[in-house]
Design goal:
mainly beta, 11 strands
């Protein structure tokens, strides 16, 4: 189900114009989802931050997304290197932020996708979401874990992606 924010514009001489805008955001640190009409904070052209935990930027979603409570969040740059670890990352991998930040996500997390290919590279190169990808996580300091990966490309000038890993039962 999509949340839509309706904005009514009244222009002199043109009558009413109704625009429907849906901007859904998720915080890679705490996982809070929000809906807003603006992508930036106030009059400045800086990305929105999280109102719950204060994290510096949010990822915009095309559709509403409900991560599992056990999901692990990793924000990556345009080269696929981890720039931030969020909720659940240490619990899933056993790795501290200091051990993963600045390193290639596929390598440091030891991601082996069951279908073959590299959904991380696809999301980065083509800017398309990759949802429900079965993966085995072989993090350096932990035992292998099966998970489902959801990848959301960043739709801004910096690029990058949000990698969400949900452990399988």
């Amino acid at each position: 189900m999509h949340r839509r924010t309706k904005v009514l514009l009244i222009r002199p001489g043109y009558g009413r114009v109704l625009h429907t805008m849906a901007h859904l955001f998720i915080c890679p640190n705490c996982g809070k989802r929000t809906a807003a009409t603006e992508r930036t904070a106030g009059f400045r052209n800086i990305p929105k931050g999280c109102s719950q935990c204060g994290f510096g930027f949010l990822f915009e979603l095309l559709d509403d997304y409900y991560p599992a409570p056990t999901a692990a969040f990793f924000a990556c740059d345009a080269e696929g290197r981890i720039i931030a670890c969020g909720r659940g990352s240490k619990e899933l991998t056993g790795l501290s932020d200091e051990k993963v930040i600045g390193r290639d996500a596929t390598e440091v997390l030891g991601l082996e996708f069951e279908e073959g290919g590299d959904p991380v590279a696809t999301a980065l190169e083509w800017g398309v979401r990759q949802l429900g990808k079965r993966v085995v996580v072989h993090a350096e300091d932990d035992l292998p874990t099966t998970a489902v990966a959801d990848l959301f490309p960043a739709y801004d000038d910096d690029g990058g992606l949000l990698l969400v890993l949900t452990p399988s039962k």
